[in-house]
Design goal:
InterPro entries: ABC1_TM_dom, ABC1_TM_sf, ABC_transporter_C-like, ABCC_6TM_D1. By secondary structure, the protein is mainly alpha-helical. It has helices at residues 3-6, 9-14, 19-27, 47-63, 73-112, 126-176, 186-202, 206-225, 230-274, 276-282, 285-335, 340-381, 396-405; strands spanning 407-408, 411-412. Helix 5 (73-112) runs antiparallel to helix 6, helix 6 (126-176) runs antiparallel to helix 7 (186-202) and helix 11 runs antiparallel to helix 12.
């Protein structure tokens, strides 16, 4: 076990466990035996064990009889990449909570601790003001640390594990697939189109946890700083979220049509490559070129529609925090007097909510694409397989018994083969 694994949480955060090693290296040169081993948290899982677990989990998932068919995300995905994904989501969620709730409240109290302009005594003492400043610095460091570590686990480790296991399952399924099942080139489209795109989409999902906790923390912070007036801005941003969700539902159908068009284009290209000699001999270049161009035109049409919906939802998410902040401050100025201890924390909350409202429309679109790709991979892995073939050695004892039973007049009708003789070396 490594020295890092036996150290406490406080020692891991501040790297205190490296102190004895640094002192030892200061006194004398370090040897190989002095270097600690790799911590368990940074050791990669052997690919062979991971693939074996993926096959076992998928077999168990198919036997459950889940409504809607087996899902590769619930079986192998949860077992192989679930721990890293949920740990990263938890850390990203903690980071969002610190950004939108803890930091604005500390900033508000720190502004109240500053001496007012009119010469009245501040709300807090000087020592407490310094303590608030130190606490604010620690919170800023902690939110960046948790966000970076969460993105590593949920945005790097989990997607790589899931796509590697899914690719292995597809390759194994291709060898066992029944001859009459599936379509030509489907495995190529799944491996080269769906899985590669899925890995990139999964890297953005860790921001979902941070976005949701940021919304909850921002709601609480606005109510504590602005009162009921803060609900005006939140209501406007919530309306934008509902609208972007409706746009994402429309993009789901467009995404399905786009993937089907991509499959058709891959099939045409595969026919051209496999029958290149026949195409040249029969002078079918123009016909196949027109067919390929038609398939590509249909695919680009669906891609253009999907991009329009995606850009529209992203633009709404970018504009909603600024419009909501302006509307909230206008209404607040009509009812109350603007103060620095109120405006700056509220502005910090709206600024922190800008990123979640930009990312939420993108996350909605990515979730649609992720669900579509996972459904396609799961449907391929659930196709019927070839029946198991009996080995030729299984029939050997039966044949031997049959030969021993065939006797005529008490004598065997066949002769046993002569034993192998060793040829002496010359």
């Amino acid at each position: 076990m490594s020295t890092y694994d036996t150290a406490g949480s406080f020692s891991k955060v501040l790297f205190l466990w490296c102190g004895p090693l640094a002192l030892r290296g200061w006194r004398r040169p370090l040897h190989r035996s002095d270097i600690p081993t790799t911590p368990d948290a940074f050791r990669s899982t052997p690919l062979g064990d991971m693939y074996a677990d993926a096959h076992a989990d998928w077999t168990e998932e198919r036997s459950r009889g889940r409504r809607g068919g087996p899902n590769v995300a619930y079986g192998p995905g949860r077992a192989i990449a679930g721990s890293a994904f949920f740990l990263g989501q938890y850390l990203c969620g903690l980071s969002g909570f610190l950004v939108t709730l803890v930091r604005p409240l500390l900033l508000r109290e720190l502004l109240r601790a500053m001496p007012p302009i009119d010469g009245s005594p501040p709300a807090y003492s000087v020592s407490l003001a310094y303590g608030l400043a130190v606490a604010l610095a620690v919170v800023v460091w902690l939110e960046n640390y948790t966000r970076g570590l969460g993105l590593f686990y949920a945005g790097e480790v989990a997607p790589l594990r899931f796509t590697a296991a899914a690719l292995q399952l597809i390759a194994t399924k291709l060898m066992r697939l029944h001859v009459a099942e599936g379509r030509d080139g489907l495995e190529t489209s799944l491996a080269g189109n769906d899985l590669l795109r899925l890995e990139g989409l999964l890297k953005l999902l860790p921001t979902a946890g941070a976005s949701l906790t940021s919304l909850v923390g921002g709601l609480i912070a606005l109510l504590l700083t602005l009162g009921p007036v803060g609900l005006v801005g939140l209501g406007l941003m919530t309306l934008v979220i509902v609208l972007t969700r409706h746009i994402a539902q429309q993009g789901k159908a467009v995404q399905m049509a786009m993937l089907k068009a991509a499959d058709q284009r891959v099939n045409v290209m595969r026919e051209i490559m496999e029958g290149a000699k026949v195409v040249k001999m029969q002078v079918w270049e123009e016909a196949y070129l027109a067919r390929l161009q038609q398939a590509r035109t249909i695919e680009l049409h669906h891609q253009r529609r999907f991009r329009r919906l995606s850009v529209t939802s992203t633009a709404l998410g970018r504009a909603s925090p600024m419009v909501a902040a302006a509307l909230t401050f206008i209404i607040y100025s009509r009812l109350y007097e603007l103060e620095a201890a109120v405006i700056f924390p509220a502005l910090s909350v709206f600024q922190s909510l800008r990123l979640p409202f930009i990312l939420l429309p993108i996350i909605f679109n990515n979730l649609v694409s992720v669900f579509v790709s996972i459904r396609r991979v799961s449907a391929f892995l659930d196709l019927p397989e070839q029946p198991p073939r009996g080995m030729l050695l299984d029939a050997a004892p039966a044949d031997a018994n049959a030969r021993s039973g065939r006797q005529s007049n008490g004598k065997a009708t066949g002769k046993s083969p002569p034993p192998h003789r060793r040829i002496p070396k010359q």
